[in-house]
Each structure stands twice: as structure tokens, then as C-alpha cells.
């Protein structure tokens, strides 16, 4: 991506008499770099008002003030409530009633979840680990599931196992929506430290540090636990010869979902493409409407349950 300045580490703007170097934010800006580029070395106060930037956007801007957040004139910085030099999980329970506002106020940093290095490493996952682990597992489920299906039904057609896998894939889209809406976005009471710990560990941290690429996909260890729990639940209501095939479809859906989620944060989809729309949609969920727009791979269930985000028509194409 070409910059308008010669210094590869500077892209400064002015806001309320302070200078902000937003170079590291350019590729992450929800509105695209082309919306920002004309304002290099200019005042953005009126522009941000005219475009109705969210509270989250104004809060995130503080990350880039020249000299650091400590130089800001206002004294309402929520980051003074925690110590970023220490593991964050043990601290969030003490935030109490401040937790919801703090966790929905994004910052551009890496976050340490656990002090213990083994536990911490289990929570950090490069994107390629997900398909590397789960695609072979999915293949094995299809292989053994198909054999099990044939042994029960005495059939030989590939169509019926394929339909079972497809049903599992469709079922995953509902699980994806349900987990994101009712589990990941539960609202823990400020008086319940345990619920705050749980919420932050499974999803709150992603809203707090949305640009931390190490935390954009679901780590394999908790994913394995979740897979086992779903398997046990389905085993009570699903015939044995369907179970592995349904689970294979669900795992395939999960892999697709996680890869789409990573791409929506770090990819540069072309105009009028499906992912261009979904990237705009997901950015709105992160920075404007955290209480709706729960679909990641699609907005199907948002339409069904009435939680769709309505995207505004733009004057010109976003370039990420």
C-alpha cells in the first residue's frame, strides 16, 4: 500500500490541539486508508463529527496520541484501572461495574491473559494452526463416519453421507450465531467476578484488543473441549450412524468460520465481493453496534432473529 508521506513510520493527524501518529492503525481503519489519507497533517475534529464516529472510535484514537495516553488532558482514561504490564485475566474481575464500558473500549495492543507461560501459550494461536489441526480431524470423521453409516444402513451411495455432512455444516451456522450472541456476548453482572472472568476469557478480550492477530482464531485446546461437549450433546438426540458425519460438517463449518473471521480483520476484499460486505458488517459490530450483528461467516441468522446491522451507502469504495 502506498503512503502519501516519505517517513514510513509517520502518519500524523491533529485532534483538539493534540497530535496523533496513526500510522500503525491505517491498515486497520474500518473506513479504509483512502478515507484517511487526505487528512495527513490536518485537523480531523470536524471530519469525525460529520461522519458520526462512535465512542469506541474516539477512545481508540487516544492510543495514538504523541507522547502516549498519559499526555492527554482529560482524566477519564479507563486504562488507569488496570496494569497492562501484568496478566489481564486476574485483574478484570475487580473492575466490577466498570467492566462493560472498559471491555467495549478498544485499544491497539497485545494482551497477556495469564501470568503462567504454559497457560498463556495455550491461548495464543496463529491462524494456520486451525486448518492444520482440524482439517485432518474432519477428514477422519468423514472417513469413519461414512464407514459407520454404511455398516448400519447397508447402503453404498455417497449422496446420503454427503447430505449428513451438509446438515452438520448448516447446523454449525446456527451454533456460530448462538455462541456469539448468547454466550460470547452475555452481560455479566458487575458483582459476579466469575462471570466477568469467563466473559473476558472467551470473547471480551477480542473486543478489547481487536487488532491482536494472535487472538483472532479459537485456540485448539478449548475448541477440542467444545467439540467434545457438542458431540456428547448430539449423541443423546442423533443416531450413531449420523453422528460423526454431522460433527464433520460442523467442524468444517467451524474452520471456515475461523478463517473468515481472520480474513475480515486482516484481509483486503475487493469491492462488491461477499467478503467486502461482511468486513464492513463485522467492523460495525466491533466499533458501533456490539449488541447486534452477530453473524461472522454470514448474516443469515441475524435476519432470522432480527439482529441485522443496516449498513449505510458509502460515497466511494473502501480500500483496506
UniProtKB/TrEMBL annotation:
Membrane topology label: Multi-pass membrane protein
Transmembrane segments: 127-146, 158-175, 216-234, 241-264
GO cellular component terms given for this protein: endoplasmic reticulum membrane
Cofactor(s) needed by this chain: Zn(2+); Fe cation
PROSITE patterns per UniProt: CYTOCHROME_B5_1, CYTOCHROME_B5_2
Domain of life: Eukaryota
Positions with a binding annotation for Zn(2+): 180, 185, 203, 206-207, 261, 265, 282, 285-286
Location relative to the cell: Endoplasmic reticulum membrane
Primary localisation category: endoplasmic reticulum
GO BP of this protein: fatty acid biosynthetic process
Family matches, as InterPro entries: Cyt_B5-like_heme/steroid-bd, Cyt_B5-like_heme/steroid_sf, Cyt_B5_heme-BS, Fatty_acid_hydroxylase, Scs7
Pathway(s) where this gene product acts: Sphingolipid metabolism; Lipid metabolism
Domain Cytochrome b5 heme-binding: 1-70
Keywords for the protein's UniProt record, in alphabetical order: Endoplasmic reticulum, Fatty acid biosynthesis, Fatty acid metabolism, Heme, Iron, Lipid biosynthesis, Lipid metabolism, Membrane, Metal-binding, Oxidoreductase, Transmembrane, Transmembrane helix, Zinc
UniProt similarity note: Belongs to the sterol desaturase family. SCS7 subfamily.
Name of this chain's protein: Fatty acid 2-hydroxylase
